[in-house]
Amino acid sequence: MREKDPWVSPWEGDVLRGREEIPDIEWANYRRLAGPLLAEMLDDPQATMKFMHHPDAGVRQVALEVYKWRWDPKAGSQFATLCAEMAVHDPAESVRNSAILALARTYERTDDVPVGRTLAEIVMNDQETPLCRSNAYLGLFFVRGRRPPFEEWLRKYRGVLVPVPEGVDWEFVRSFLVPQRAPSPEAGSLERVMGSVPQQIRPSALAFLAYQKALAVYERGEVRAMYRHLDRAVSWFSLAGMLPLTRGSVWFA
């Protein structure tokens, strides 16, 4: 599989490159839901896409999850279009929820107008399940490129998902439904900055971005991903000519 250019977008989602990248608990759940079809999904993106139309909801859910992590989907792709449709219309809550999260990840920091509207309408829909509405609300933060107030949510609600409707900032949600709105000028600004960073200081900038990603995935409980980003931060700091560092010295700096 094609290696990603590290200068294009340091905020792109990590590509799932093999069995060792899948947390054991997720791997067991994928095998339980998809059985032998999982091997096909890991080998072929077209097969993974095909299984998103499978009659079994568990297979559709795994296909969404695997494509999101292994095949590095892009905004505007066939996968993204299918996610938007499944997030609203799939009959299974588990599939709609996976599609919502995949859609938000694919359009992270783009402030895409149609995707923002789709997620906001899910949050506003009182016929939708609480889980889907809460995850759609979380997704709005990632699409806008705005850091969710996880500390406040943990303090108030003892979790990283807020109850709907009482925990929702409705003014924020309605900002995605403004007619003829334009994307926020702040969305994607880090990618634009990275594109203009002089070559001699790029290692320091990428080290900082890797550190920020470690913080973000740690807040989502993704410890293995946190270690991966810390390793990248250590490597970039070393290339920047700093003293030898370890994960711990970066994390507790």
Features:
mainly alpha; 60% helix; disordered C terminus
Task: Describe, in plain words, how this protein is organized in 3D.
It contains 14 helices and no strands. Mean pLDDT is 76; it is low at 1-21, 189-202 and 242-253. It has a domain at 197-253. By secondary structure, the chain is mostly helical. The relative contact order is 0.09. α3 runs antiparallel to α4 (57-70). It has helices at 24-34, 37-43, 45-51, 57-70, 78-89, 93-106, 113-124, 130-144, 150-157, 170-174, 189-195, 202-219, 223-239, 247-251.
Give the rounded overall mean pLDDT.
Answer: 76
Order of helices and strands: HHHHHHHHHHHHHH
What's the Cα radius of gyration? 19 Å
Low-confidence stretches: 1-21, 189-202, 242-253
**Biggest sheet details:** none
Distance between the termini: 35 Å
Q: Count the strands?
A: 0
Q: Give the amount of beta strand, in percent.
A: under 5%
Structural class computed from helices and strand pairing: mainly alpha
Shape type? globular
Helix content: 55-70%
SS summary, helix count:
14
